Amino acid sequence: MPPLQLHLFLILFLSTSALSCAARTGDDRHHSLPQFREAPQFYNSKSCDSISTIHVAMTLDVAYLRGSVAAIFSVLQHSSCPESIQFHFIASSSISFLNSTIRSTFPSLSFQIYPFDESRVSGLISTSIRKALDRPLNYARSYLPLLLPDSVHKVVYLDSDLVLVDDIARLASTPLPDKVALAAPEYCNANFTSYFTPSFWSNPALSMAFEGRKACYFNTGVMVMDLDKWRVSGFTAQIEEWMELQKRMRIYELGSLPPFLLVFAGRIAAVDHRWNQHGLGGDNYRGLCRNLHPGPVSLLHWSGKGKPWVRIDARRPCPLDALWQPYDLIRRPFSLEDA
Fold first, then answer.
1. Tens digit of pLDDT per residue, the chain (339 long)?
2. Which of the chain's termini has less CB crowding within 10 Å, N or C?
């Protein structure tokens, strides 16, 4: 073959190989994204004619999408007025994919996705005891009053690693007294001092932040929020101030929770513990299996390192992961082994 023809042949061969490789890479990316079955349709009961819209807020990303879909499914399945629920999703990337996935999985769902600019908070985040806790989207809940329209006055915030087994309308109807902007289950038997460093408690100028407050631990994965009161009081700015201080001197170790405690602990409306059976993912280091807390259950929350879908896929589920599995809408590829 003459040198010129050989040169052209090599160019054509390399170009074709590159395009083939790119196509395979695109296919691999497509197949790596989660695919879900369409959920059943849920309808309002006759008693829903006069009910107000229930607003529910969640973060949404590809990594936790399987958990988010299960949580949405559980909310709809146990609601007496599912068509009266408006979902507000906060996402920082893959918004087009997330939008189409939610739309195809829940065709009749009333929802809106709001873009979250991670640069708004990334410079304020300090490393914590587990890398997953440092994702900027974990901090998006602090910005809900600024991201959601002013027409949304009250919202139920839910994490992506939980399922409801009760009507969310009961949680949404939690009364919030004057000047109280947040409601959540409190756990006053927990060691509250452990959420902050010794340097925090040894500094009177810092520790006096809790003076006059009966400060108790609460989990930020389930909250009822009065957005109007939050906006008026500027709580987002207060949270950011504590995060800025954390960058200068280490006052806590656990991600987005401590700033919430600094602003709200001892100043929230209490919610029955049945609405957050948390910690089912184990601790933040090992993620060991745990049992339910004593008492009735309206919401199961796999907070902690272990997530039920990960353990199920690894064929090392905890006993309570079986309670999450009925809400899993993941579409699995057919295999001869499953058959």
1. 555 454 544 444 444 444 444 434 443 344 479 999 999 999 998 889 888 999 999 999 999 999 999 999 999 999 999 999 999 999 999 999 999 999 999 999 999 999 999 999 999 988 776 677 788 999 999 999 999 999 999 999 999 999 999 999 999 999 999 999 999 999 999 999 999 999 999 999 999 999 999 999 999 999 999 999 999 999 999 999 999 999 999 999 888 999 999 999 999 999 999 999 999 999 877 888 999 989 999 999 999 999 999 999 999 999 999 999 999 999 986 544 444
2. C
Cα within 13 Å of Cα(195), Cβ side = 19
Radius of gyration over alpha carbons of the chain, in Å? 23
Residue 8 makes CB contacts below 8 A (sequence gap 6+) with none
Rounded CA separation 70/325 (Å): 8
Q: What crossing angle do the helices spanning 95-105 and 65-77 adopt, rounded to 10°?
A: 30
Long-range contacts for 121-129 (Cβ within 8 Å, ≥24 apart)? Answer: 121/243, 124/240, 124/243, 124/244, 124/247, 125/243, 126/243, 126/246, 126/247, 126/250, 128/253, 128/254, 128/255, 129/253, 129/254, 129/255, 129/284, 129/285
**One-letter identity of residue 254:** L
Q: What type of residue sits at position 222?
A: V
The residue type of 242 is W
pTM: 0.88
Residues, the chain, total? Answer: 339
**103: helix, strand or coil:** helix
